[in-house]
């Protein structure tokens, strides 16, 4: 029982320190990556921007950097937490209960790893589809905003033509 209490205290303190360290550093990483990407984009030729749609560039700049931030922050935290907690539980079970029962309890682990791997592949495929949808949405948004400028310009031209037509009538 004492082992579990001590482990709980260390886990709590460790999580507090890790969260402060990791979530601060992952935000700095995200900022650095965005700045580097912006610098990289400013060095690219006009052909690059003709070749790739603006929506694609925005989607990758947003989603990919956010995914890297998640892995660098929460992913590292969860990995360390899982390894520490899992190891502590397995060792405690083997020492205090029975090592054979511990081995039996660990039998489903390979199946769980296989299931996680299959789920990861499905999630990756869906993330790719979401990335493409986000890219198309960004393209449409950019086209719409650019189109608003043109539409407003035409709207001004129509009013100008009306004004000119009135002036011609009275001349």
TrEMBL record:
The chain crosses the membrane at residues 99-119. The keyword Transmembrane applies. InterPro entries: ABC1_TM_dom, ABC1_TM_sf, Type_1_exporter. It is a multi-pass membrane protein. Gene3D superfamilies: ABC transporter type 1, transmembrane domain. The keyword Nucleotide-binding applies. This is Probable multidrug resistance ABC transporter ATP-binding/permease protein YheI. It comes from Listeria grayi (Listeria murrayi).
């Amino acid at each position: 029982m004492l082992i579990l209490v001590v482990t709980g205290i260390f886990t709590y303190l460790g999580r507090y320190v890790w969260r402060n360290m990791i979530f601060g550093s992952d935000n700095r990483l995200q900022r650095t990556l965005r700045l580097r990407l912006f610098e990289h984009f400013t060095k690219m030729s006009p052909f690059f921007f003709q070749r790739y749609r603006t929506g694609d560039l925005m989607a990758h700049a947003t989603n990919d950097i956010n995914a890297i931030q998640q892995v660098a922050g929460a992913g590292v935290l969860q990995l360390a937490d899982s390894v520490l907690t899992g190891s502590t539980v397995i060792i405690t079970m083997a020492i205090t209960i029975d090592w054979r029962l511990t081995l039996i309890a660990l039998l489903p682990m390979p199946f769980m790893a296989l299931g996680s791997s299959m789920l990861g592949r499905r999630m990756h495929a869906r993330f790719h589809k979401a990335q493409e949808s986000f890219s198309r949405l960004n393209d449409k948004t950019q086209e719409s905003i650019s189109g608003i400028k043109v539409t407003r310009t035409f709207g001004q031209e129509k009013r100008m033509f009306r004004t000119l037509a009135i002036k011609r009538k009275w001349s």
